[in-house]
């Protein structure tokens, strides 16, 4: 009988330290919700209210099926992974949840939380990039903010040992190569800070944030962000609104190009009559302006 394919969590066991003896823990145990404190650096910041309500109803009927991950502090328990389940359990009126309590350093907790975030079905590109950077930083023993420059440096001047480690970590992540990550995904970090914050809050999805990021004028971008949130502008509408209005010279050239005799002749009687009416109006305006100048 063929062996079952390992889960992403199993594949990353050695990277995340889950196999280290000091991180081992017994099976799940019940922990009071009022003893669980959310970490300040949780990677996920937005939770859809409708989705939480649905999960809360499921928890009322079936309980919490997957334990949350905690680490113990001097006074309480700090949540590493499972904030959505904790929130839904509180909505469902539970007083405790099943939990796995693990000894973990700040760095190990960051990586475990990042892996949990990567396995979400509703993961957006910014969440994916930030979680990936956390995991790669742990693997390469560098600060998170140095990962992207390092990836670009490896593309220009590869170091065989570093490349091998990068190939391995991205292969286990199952999200493409580190080269494609550096080229295509990490660019989201260059979005203006206000767009990144809206993405983290869940107020703006990637496609519209990307369209807004291409607006280089700060004032115009701020105006379009407000309009996008208030009027629910589409990507096409954002791009159209970001275009500068045509100059008079440009419009006159377009009119001259359109007034081709053969093109006008192909129109119907009603359309040609409308064109003649408009041309008469234009002639009246221009003659009036010329008379005022003289």
What's the gist of this structure?
It comes from Deinococcus aerophilus. Among the domains are: 25-101, Alpha-Beta Complex (Conserved hypothetical protein from pyrococcus furiosus pfu- 392566-001, ParB domain), CATH 3.90.1530.30; 191-242, no CATH class; 249-285, no CATH class. Helix content is 59%, strand content 8%.
The SSE string, one letter per element, is HHEEHEEHEHHHHHHHHHHHH
Span of the ends, CA to CA: 98 Å
Number of helical regions: 16
Give a count of the beta strands, DSSP E runs of length 2 or more.
5
Silhouette: elongated
How would you sum up this structure, described in words?
By secondary structure, the protein is of the alpha/beta class. Among the domains are: 25-101, Conserved hypothetical protein from pyrococcus furiosus pfu- 392566-001, ParB domain (Alpha-Beta Complex), CATH 3.90.1530.30; 191-242, no CATH class; 249-285, no CATH class. It is built from 16 helices and five strands. Strands 1-5-3-4-2 form a five-stranded mixed sheet, sandwiched between helices. Strand 3 and strand 4 form a beta hairpin. The longest helix has 25 residues, at 269-293.
């Amino acid at each position: 009988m063929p062996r079952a394919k390992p889960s992403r969590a199993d594949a990353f066991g050695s990277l995340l330290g889950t196999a280290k003896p000091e991180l081992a823990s017994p099976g799940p145990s019940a922990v009071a919700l009022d003893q669980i404190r959310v970490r300040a650096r949780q990677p996920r910041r937005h939770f859809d209210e409708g989705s939480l309500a649905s999960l809360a109803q499921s928890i009322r009927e079936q309980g919490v099926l997957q334990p949350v991950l905690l680490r113990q502090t001097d006074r309480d328990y700090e949540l590493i992974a499972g904030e959505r389940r904790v929130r839904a359990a509180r909505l469902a009126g539970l007083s405790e949840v099943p939990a796995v309590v693990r000894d973990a350093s700040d760095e190990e907790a960051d990586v475990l939380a990042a892996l949990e975030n990567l396995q979400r079905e509703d993961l957006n590109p910014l969440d994916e990039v930030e979680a990936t950077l956390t995991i790669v930083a742990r693997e390469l023993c560098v600060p998170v903010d140095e990962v992207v420059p390092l990836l670009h440096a490896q593309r220009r001047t590869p170091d065989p040992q570093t490349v091998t480690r990068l190939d391995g970590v991205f292969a286990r992540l199952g999200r493409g190569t580190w080269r494609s990550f550096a080229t295509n995904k990490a660019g989201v970090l260059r979005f203006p800070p206000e767009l990144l914050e809206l993405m983290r809050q869940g107020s703006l999805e990637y496609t519209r944030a990307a369209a807004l990021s291409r607006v280089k004028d700060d004032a115009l971008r701020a105006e379009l962000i407000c309009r996008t949130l208030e009027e629910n502008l589409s990507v096409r509408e954002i791009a159209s609104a970001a275009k500068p209005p045509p100059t008079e010279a440009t419009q006159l050239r377009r009119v001259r190009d359109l007034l081709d005799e053969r093109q006008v002749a192909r129109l119907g009687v009603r359309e040609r009559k409308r064109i003649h009416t408009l041309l008469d109006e234009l002639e009246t305006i221009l003659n009036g302006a010329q008379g005022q100048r003289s």
